[in-house]
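Handout, page 2. Input:
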Amino acid sequence: MKLVAILLDGLNYSAWLFLVAVGLTLIYGVMRILNIAHGAFYAIGAYVCASALGLYYSAGLPEAGAFLMMGLSALVAGFVVGLLIERVVLRKLYGQDEVIMVLVTYALFLILSDAVKLTWGVESYYVFQPYAYFGYIEFGNLPYQVYDLLVVGLAIVAGIGLWYWLNRTRTGILMTAVVADREVAAAMGVNVTRIFALTFAIGTVLAAVAGAATAPKIAVTPGIGVEVIILAFAVVVIGGLGSIPGAVVGAIFAGYARAICVHVAPQFELFAIYAVMAVVLAIRPHGLFARAEGRKI
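Output:
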């Protein structure tokens, strides 16, 4: 039964890590911005979801519709906040050194974290109803929440949808062209500014969706974005900054490393993901899927 528990917990945690990290790696891959504010977008998604569900349940509406409310609240919050920050702040800084962009997004993280406290206060929010709605199923004698399996399905849908959009739609292909060479793409008539705005909004939406999906499983409290950005950074470093397949593989490696430690050696659980990151970086300093880039002077 321990093996089954490791497989299920590793799968669920890997899916959650992918949802958390994929927006971060998308933004870096297209815009070359290591977005430290990603953790704040995750927290905003969780808080908006908790508030929306609170209003929904207090109105006495059908419980099944709460899942639609979760999705809509995350999409709206992520898209609005992402577009607003891109237009007001980041658009004025394109072309700056990557270190400056890291400092700017770190400042945004601090500002948004305080804005969350000012808006929702410091009390915890609990919206456990969606988590308990589907009950659990048994694998042998091991009960497992159906909601956790739905999170796995959400991660799969997000990954496939992102792949299809990048490889089978005109906008996605233009985005790939911008990744290859933004100057040449601009010279060929691609509106790079619009591509950047859309990319940042989608990355923000993905972070908000991850926060909304997590909200029913945790107490939504100030500071939940801090751990998330650290874990997301570890995942994308393992897979390679800017690589979507790398985010998948990095999430799987990190998720199963943690699951194995939780069930076999709990005292090492806190270090498992970072140990994997250290080993990968020792072998491939740019991550598993990233290509080494020539240094520009």
